[in-house]
Amino acid sequence: MQLGVLCRLPLAVARAVLAALRGRLGALCWSLSPLSLPLSLPLPLPGWRGVSAPSPAAPAGPRRERERQRQRERDDAPPTPTSVNYHFTRQCNYKCGFCFHTAKTSFVLPLEEARRGLAMLKEAGESYGGASSFGEFVGKLVQFCKQELKLPSVSIVSNGSLIRERWFKKYGEYLDILAISCDSFDENVNVLIGRGQGKKNHVENLHKLRQWCREYGVAFKINSVINRFNVEEDMNEQIKALNPVRWKVFQCLLIEGENTGEDALREAEKFVISDEDFEQFLDRHKDVSCLVPESNQKMRDSYLILDEYMRFLNCRNGRKEPSKSILDVGVEAAIKFSGFDEKMFLNRGGKYVWSKADMKLDW
Ligand code: SF4
């Protein structure tokens, strides 16, 4: 998840962001000066079941036919989203070679529009997450989701490189979970992968963030993408020492148009590993109780992803095909094109204790 650089945003959008954040310019400059802040936020809302109204054309035939009709109506109903990932910008300060949400646009919705979309999702009864942006922009969305929408859980996924302690001081109380991406505890491997920015040490920063999560009462999570360069690594000790509530372990995934194919901004083929390699990595870490594995198949259909225009991205055909924006057609019309597989979502353990109020956290 990535954060846009203000100077690279369309002027109107930059103005809207600045207008939305006026009066906070000091903080804004601080947030913007280090260029980008890659974050992503998963925000679970109360469960919602899209229930379609009984069809007036339902035949009054025998019981079996009525059951079939009800089944057809259930099949046509929109999926039941309990968590959505909102990637509010595609800009990022890292250059991970396998990135599958690349900087194809620099668009970021004005804050008010993003709020409107989030409120629409809330109204539809689902949950959502979101991607990175400026510290203040993200902070305000997190605060809005927690305070005004009263979502049970708000989380951010980020590479963590631009999160500062002052952000925790100001917004930590509204955040349930902070997930930081870390693929290796060997800094040389991180550099090889592209998971880094100049001289900053990604692993040192990870430890700093872990400590702030303790101090400010935010649950800490780690996401790792297993690829050709880290597949042999033994991370047992480091993960146990960091003691995250959840360690998501993804198998490196190819997405046409993002990290593979002619119009892609990355060529991730050299990072890809076989299912057997992935299984071996999992086996090496079977004693880590918080490990949650995600194979390619699980990843493709089991996420509700909103892009920077608030369009659902359907990954079923191996590429990201956008729906219309929920801001234009509403949640229910857009979500039908999301490709979301609710069974797979539940199967991968997508629904878990995600509100810090419900966690027994050992800070
Ligand atoms: S995978 Fe790397 S480059 Fe892509 S958004 Fe995440 S941190 Fe940025």
UniProtKB/TrEMBL annotation:
TM segments? none
The record's section on PROSITE patterns has: RADICAL_SAM
Where do Basic and acidic residues bias regions lie? 62-77
Domain Radical SAM core stretches: 76-291
Biased-composition ranges, Low complexity, are: 52-61
Keywords, ordered alphabetically: 4Fe-4S, Antiviral defense, Endoplasmic reticulum, Immunity, Innate immunity, Iron, Iron-sulfur, Membrane, Metal-binding, S-adenosyl-L-methionine, Signal
Question: Where's it found, cell-wise?
Answer: Endoplasmic reticulum membrane
Which parts of the sequence are annotated with region: Disordered? 52-84
Q: Short name of one Pfam family for this protein? A: Radical_SAM
Q: Where mainly located?
A: endoplasmic reticulum
- Which GO terms of the molecular function aspect are on file? 4 iron, 4 sulfur cluster binding; catalytic activity; metal ion binding
What are the boundaries of the signal sequence?
1-19
Q: Which cofactor does it need?
A: [4Fe-4S] cluster
Per its UniProt record, what PANTHER family does this chain match? RADICAL S-ADENOSYL METHIONINE DOMAIN-CONTAINING PROTEIN 2 (PTHR21339), S-ADENOSYLMETHIONINE-DEPENDENT NUCLEOTIDE DEHYDRATASE RSAD2 (PTHR21339:SF0)
> Of which family is this protein a member?
Belongs to the radical SAM superfamily. RSAD2 family.
- The protein's name is S-adenosylmethionine-dependent nucleotide dehydratase RSAD2
State the organism's lineage.
Eukaryota, Metazoa, Chordata, Craniata, Vertebrata
Q: Which gene encodes it?
A: RSAD2
